[in-house]
Description:
- 49% of the residues are buried.
- The chain folds into 2 domains: 5-211, UDP-n-acetylglucosamine1-carboxyvinyl-transferase, Chain, CATH 3.65.10.10; 216-391, UDP-n-acetylglucosamine1-carboxyvinyl-transferase, Chain, CATH 3.65.10.
- α1 (5-13) packs parallel to α2 (31-43) and α11 runs parallel beside α13.
- The protein has 400 residues and is an alpha/beta fold.
- Helices cover 34% and strands 23% of the residues.
- The structure holds uridine-diphosphate-2(N-acetylglucosaminyl) butyric acid.
- Uridine-diphosphate-2(N-acetylglucosaminyl) butyric acid binds next to α1, α5, α6 and α13.
Amino acid sequence: MSGAKNAALPLMVASLLTDKPLVLDNIPKLADVKTMSDLLCMLGVSIDCSGKKMTLTAKKICSTTAPYELVKRMRASVLVLGPMLARTGQARVSLPGGCAIGVRPINLHIKGLQALGADIELKDGYVVASVPKGLKGGEVSFSIPTVTGTENIMMAATLAKGVTTIINAACEPEVSDLAECLNGMGAKISEHGTPKIAIEGVDKLQGTEHRIIYDRIEVGTYAIAAAITDGEIELIGDGLGELMSGATSVFEQAGIRIKSAASGLLVSAQDLKPVNVATEPFPGFPTDLQAQLMAIMCVTSGTSVITENIWENRFLHVPELCRMGADITLKGSSAIVRGVKSLQGAPVMATDLRASFGLVLAGLAAKGTTVIDRIYHLVRGYENAVEKLQACGADIEEIL
Ligand code: EPU
């Protein structure tokens, strides 16, 4: 399996916190990683890649502006706000704007940095932040556990004076992976992976070498690929079972059998069943697997109810699945999915990263040929998806 996109992006940004080299191993080859590299290079980070290793060195920050052109392409760009502010005392980051899956505000990132003493104003579509005398530790209490918000504040707090406590912090494994790397750089972060993280600020961080965790969303996606085609798959990597803990019970209810093996996990389907599931922050069922789960429920006999609690508009795949013969009704934030005997291939359109793989899965199970347009969404977050599926026997090709 590949390194996690949502771990790799904040880990790359952590390089802004030190003038020493940060070496990241297990870097996935993805469009979003390329966008983050472009942004960091613009800020003065030199980046060398060799195989799965990436070395990032921010000897000197030469710009503190993250421009609209890059932030609108990838919202995770907002992660540079906290580290740049901590390292240089100023940062100017474009407001990301809306996106296909929801409004995606960054008010909690801003409030958190204000609690650490930053002056922040919104000007010409940009967040303009400064803290001439340096950040001071404080209490940051999130009304919603935000993943990149927690990462932004955690990174900023490593170089703040005194202790910062993040209350209602996100507990996702990617947040812990970042904390482990920062601790390797000399930060003092404790209780990450719980809703209350404590960070004792230090004067300086050093370089380190860190191996990125596997992508639990990729693991879940390929597990569903095996189940929807009534196949069996071996997913290779250490610690995959632990990473999947948020999804395992739902998979079990659905009849997607996951067994530990020496190499990683073995997945097969056994008597698929409908589920009643709601997306939740970790350790709940991840929103980033919602579209893929819906694809398999479309061909599972019985009625499933899938509720999306994280993003207000993450059902854009529903009309596309219906074009393939799925029987889905939307009711508020829930999708009522009545399983049909089979789907039929059709031309469909990808609307976001996870929705695009949901359509690939539906296409694998459907009779006939499915042609998916706007596939650029897929390469943002799935490394070598077409090659990996072909290697498992899927009849899929990328049409340029
Ligand atoms: N929210 C606010 N204000 C904020 C920040 C978040 O109201 O300042 C709300 C959001 O609108 C949302 C909820 O809080 O309703 C949770 O959002 P969160 O901030 O946790 O999302 P994120 O950090 O922007 C990350 C992943 C997403 C994933 C979500 C939820 C990265 C780079 N992105 O986004 O991944 O869906 O957490 O788990 O880590 C994907 O990979 O396809 C993807 C969208």
